[in-house]
């Protein structure tokens, strides 16, 4: 009945089908035929209860278990075409992968007024049960939806998005970057240590940086006595636990909603530990503010102080999220940038010349960061859960389906970026007449910080941290990579694994 009604509407009303040309403009046309039902959409076959999960099992799976996200997208695209269905696992929502930018643009923009982007269900459970009394119904940006999300985002936007308030951290973040580079000086010749512990060194820097911004003080992650018992080290382990368990708990299994599995118990302990450590840091920040005894200008306040002036619960929850979300995301993106510059010594030398110049506008540095994010994004895909039926590419996508845009995969196709697999920062500085000009690709292709009002609220802070560290690092060192390509892990967010074959020489 619903499909019949949709078909009639489809015939009577001109549905805007967005098609992108080389200049990225949209054109609109009416459909030539009535849409096909959702069940006829191509995709992986499904079994009762376990959905499409058997395709990802070792040996017997048609897709396989060892593919990273990029390889999986490539397999699905080549096998099934521009629209691919994958049935949900253990009552998870069904998923539809859209490989044409006009298709996911259509869905994302249609839902921009109230975008639904499911977060970590296990984290939502933890907050709604264990911390319900502490936060009094608030759920934070990671887990909130609808009006709750909009209300929370509206409160925190001024503290995190005002450019002048972000730039005030530049001198202090430069000191953190200097300390991190000095640590590298002391360990750079210990190849065995760096191959296994480089990412630890980088996450120490990223956590110290985000803590400075969120709390207004250093927490000692770069000190020599950074042992396993240090609260910062425990925070880093909690963030790792969340990412390590996310694929099982958030993507492939909802069994934990009925049975407390070992993985579920592990991540609940991590959530609690992370909450307790964050709460201690936040309380210490509050004490420093109270002991100061006088007001300071807004642009000199930490984020937690600005938010405490608005809503104490919001301040606690936002600082808590920042102390986790700002660790691996920034570390991964910085590692990617270092990796591509290490593989492209001519680009690295060009960057070094800019860093050492008197020009305050480091345009090439920003272009290098944009290019590395195009090639390797910490979140390789964007997602929206449909709040209504959509007709996309000739198919009906019903309400309640997770629509996925595989942005990193598409960003690496020559169809959109000439010489797409090459690291060419110049494409972000090129004239519009240049075939390399980034604007020739549809705007929806490369979205490393998300799309629309649900894009990453910490983008400006993250970019400032990365750019500040990069300037210090490449002014001091010539960075090379010796060995096979860096390994990437298949997690809910992108992650690298050892060995890290960076080599550091003093730059002339």
From TrEMBL:
Record-linked CDD domains: CYP24A1-like (cd11054)
Pfam families associated with the record: p450 (PF00067)
Residues that span the membrane, as ranges: none
Residues annotated as binding heme: 456
InterPro entries to which the protein is assigned, alphabetical: CYP11_CYP27_families (IPR050479), Cyt_P450 (IPR001128), Cyt_P450_CS (IPR017972), Cyt_P450_E_grp-I (IPR002401), Cyt_P450_sf (IPR036396)
Keywords for this protein: Heme, Iron, Metal-binding, Monooxygenase, Oxidoreductase
GO molecular function annotation: heme binding; iron ion binding; monooxygenase activity; oxidoreductase activity, acting on paired donors, with incorporation or reduction of molecular oxygen
Family: Belongs to the cytochrome P450 family.
Name of this chain's protein: Cytochrome P450
């Amino acid at each position: 009945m619903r499909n019949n009604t949709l078909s009639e509407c489809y015939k009577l009303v001109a549905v805007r089908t967005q098609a992108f040309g080389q200049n990225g403009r949209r054109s609109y046309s009416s459909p030539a035929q009535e849409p096909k039902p959702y069940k006829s959409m191509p995709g992986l076959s499904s079994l009762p209860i376990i959905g499409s999960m058997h395709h990802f099992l070792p040996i017997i799976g048609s897709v396989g278990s060892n593919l990273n996200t990029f390889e999986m997208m490539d397999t699905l695209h080549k096998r099934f075409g521009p629209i691919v269905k994958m049935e949900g696992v253990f009552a998870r929502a069904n998923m539809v992968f859209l490989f044409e930018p006009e298709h996911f643009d259509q869905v994302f923009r249609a839902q921009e007024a109230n975008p639904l982007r499911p977060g970590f269900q296990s984290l939502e459970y933890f907050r709604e049960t264990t911390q319900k009394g502490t936060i009094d119904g608030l759920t934070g940006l990671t887990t909130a939806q609808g009006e709750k999300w909009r209300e929370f985002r509206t409160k925190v936007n001024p503290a995190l998005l005002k450019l002048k308030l972000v730039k005030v951290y530049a001198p202090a973040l430069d000191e953190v970057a200097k300390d991190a580079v000095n640590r590298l000086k002391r360990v750079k010749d210990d190849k065995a240590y760096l191959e296994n512990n480089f990412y630890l060194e980088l996450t120490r820097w990223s956590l110290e940086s985000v803590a400075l911004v969120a709390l207004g003080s250093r927490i000692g992650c770069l000190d020599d006595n950074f042992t396993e018992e240090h609260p910062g080290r425990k925070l880093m382990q909690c963030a790792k636990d969340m990412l390590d368990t996310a694929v099982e708990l958030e993507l492939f299994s909802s069994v934990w909603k009925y049975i407390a599995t070992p993985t579920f118990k592990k991540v609940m302990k991590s959530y609690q530990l992370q909450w307790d450590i964050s709460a201690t840091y936040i309380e210490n920040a509050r004490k420093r503010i109270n002991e100061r005894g006088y007001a300071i200008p807004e642009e000199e306040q930490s984020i937690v102080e600005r938010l405490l002036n608005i809503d104490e619960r919001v301040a606690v929850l936002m600082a808590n999220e920042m102390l986790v979300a700002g660790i691996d995301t920034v570390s991964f993106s910085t590692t990617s940038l270092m990796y591509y510059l290490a593989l492209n010594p001519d680009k690295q030398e060009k960057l070094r010349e800019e860093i050492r110049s008197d020009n305050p506008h480091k345009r090439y540095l920003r272009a290098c960061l944009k290019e590395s994010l195009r090639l390797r994004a910490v979140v390789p895909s964007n997602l929206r859960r449909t709040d209504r039926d959509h007709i996309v590419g000739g198919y009906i996508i019903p309400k309640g389906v997770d629509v996925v845009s595989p942005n990193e995969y598409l960003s690496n196709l020559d169809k959109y970026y000439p010489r797409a697999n090459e690291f060419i920062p110049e494409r972000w500085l090129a004239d519009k007449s240049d075939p390399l000009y980034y604007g020739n690709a549809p705007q929806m292709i490369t979205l490393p910080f998300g799309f629309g009002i649900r894009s990453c609220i910490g983008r400006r802070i993250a970019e400032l941290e990365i750019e500040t560290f990069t300037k210090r690092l490449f002014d001091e060192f010539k960075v090379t990579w010796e060995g096979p390509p860096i390994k990437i892990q298949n997690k809910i967010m992108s992650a690298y694994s050892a060995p890290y074959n960076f080599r550091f020489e003093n730059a002339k």
